[in-house]
Amino acid sequence: MKRGRLAAVLPPIVFGILFLAAWELFVVARDIKPYLLPKPSAIWGQFHGNFTFIRKATQVTGTNALIGLLLGVVLGSAIAFAASRFKLLNELISPMAIAVSAMPIIVLVAIFNDLFVITSEIPRRLMVAVVVFFLVFINVSKGLTQADATQLELMRSYGAGEADIIRKVRVPHALEFFFVALRQAAPLAVVTAFVSEYFGGLQNGLGSRISQSIANSRDAAGWAYVVGACLLGLAFFLLSIALERIAMPWKVRRSSS
Amino acid sequence: MSDFAVDVAGVSMVFNNGRPNQVRAIDDVSLTVRSGEFVSLIGPSGCGKSTMLRLIANLIEPTSGSITVNGKPAAQARLDGDYGMAFQQAGLFEWRSVARNVELPLELKSWDRAKRRERALEMLRLVKLDEFADHYPWELSGGMQQRVAIARALSFSPGLLLMDEPFGALDEMTREHMQTELIRICAETGCSVVFVTHSIPEAVYLSDRVIVMSPRPGRIAAIVEVDLGKRSEDTREATDFFNKVTEVREALRGFEHTDRVISVDDR
């Protein structure tokens, strides 16, 4: 078991190290100017030197992403549940949700910036919530309505009422769809929070810091903030996977065997 | 209480009644199943045998006629848990362990946790799967899953089992094994069974009576009494067994001249 895990983890790590080494060598050997492509060692130096700033900026963007994500997940699940109960609601929302998921709705943040005080984080959080909402809504709706026909007949044969069917069949079935949505929504929340910063407003997050650093020709510092952004996205993704494993133990065993 | 586990009297079932796509699925069927009896329903595809089973289970309401289960109206019997059901798909809940699957009907009937668990293990012993109690359904083979489904159907000790082609998706070897197991389980529990199948040998091997249904609208075309005594693997090769298989086959052929193509094993 342990050896199997090592064998799975080792190749990507080795590849990563080789990639960074090749990058470093390439920049040194071809004498690439730092404003075109900084060396990994320089980026690391900046990351280390600016750690407090990077951590602060990551916190700002991360908090926006997290609050928006929670809001979107809660609302998306709740409204999907309501729509599965009330047909009219479903007919109103579903077509819109599907249409919206094909649009670059992130530009809405520009309007949110106008609607709220420009020095607040609300527009970005709201933007994240909107993006997450539709993703969660579409998936959870699907999960709640597509239960297995045999399982439903069995429940009826036990004389189960609608409340039991929801609790014991529809909700557990929708859980899988919920986590499919969350696995996409968690990193997407970070991306949305990050990109939202490019539409003006407060200049305290990762997105703003990156553009400032690049504008001031501090390219290696810009890259250091990029590293922060990558770590943040990764953290959100891992968090969603961890939650999935806790919530669906029957899946864990399947994937590990 | 009546002596009949099931009493179907003059039942007809019309789907989409009064609409252009109206279908008469069952036409004036009467049949009884005695307590402890094993009855199979056999017939060509679309003859309404699964519909018949769903009517007895009160999953659908008949257009006319009455259905009594354990001496009560079918709807009451369903709510009272008078029958257990198994389908071609095992229909196990993939998020529940094997034992918790068997416990599900007991949960709905508000048994307390310890009693549920105890009964689940007892039922799993009956189908010889107690060592898999804490596995998840996907870890089991198709035949094992079907045995869990049977254990679940029996968990609340219903006097009647309603089975809709429960072995239809299994390979021939597993299927014969499951038939033997089912006969043993029925003997141990004293259950009455209504069993829907496409397979003539299966119907003959399992049943006290085989009810042959005609193509749509479903009617009872023939009733074949099967008296083969205690079943064993030898029964499958006995002359009497083959004679009964032939008798059922001929009853099924009886309506072939109506120019319908009938295949008993189609699926």
Task: Please provide a written account of the structure.
The complex is a heterodimer of chains A (257) and B (267). With 257 residues, chain A is mostly helical. In chain A, 82% of the residues lie in helices and 0% in strands. Chain A has eleven helices and no strands. Chain A has helices spanning 2-29, 40-49, 51-85, 87-100, 108-115, 122-145, 149-157, 162-196, 206-215, 219-247, 249-256. In chain B, 35% of the residues lie in helices and 24% in strands. Chain B has eight helices and ten strands. In chain B, strand 9 (209-213) and strand 10 form a beta hairpin. In chain B, helix 7 crosses helix 8 (239-253). The longest helix of chain B is centred in the C-terminal third of the chain and has 18 residues, at 172-189. Chain B starts with a strand and ends in a 14-residue tail after the last helix. Mean pLDDT of chain B is 86; it is low at 259-267. Chain A binds chain B through residues 148, 150-151, 153-160, 164, 168-169, 172, 175, 248, 250, 253-254, and chain B through 54, 57, 59, 78-81, 83-85, 87, 89-91, 93-97, 104-105, 107-109, 136, 138-139, 162.
Overall 3D form of chain A: flat
What does the main sheet of chain B amount to?
Answer: 6 strands, mixed
Strand content of chain A: under 5%
The average pLDDT score of chain B comes to 86
Helix content bin of chain A: over 70%
Query: In DSSP terms, counting alpha (H) and pi (I) runs of 4 or more, how many helices of chain A?
Result: 11
Measured distance between first and last alpha carbons of chain B: 39 Å
Largest sheet of chain A: none
End-to-end distance of chain A, in Å? 10 Å
**SSE string of chain A, helices as H and strands as E:** HHHHHHHHHHH
**Strand order, biggest sheet of chain B?**
6-7-8-3-9-10
Oligomer: heterodimer
- The radius of gyration of chain A is 23 Å
Poorly predicted runs of 5 or more residues of chain A: none
| Overall helicity of chain B | 25-40%
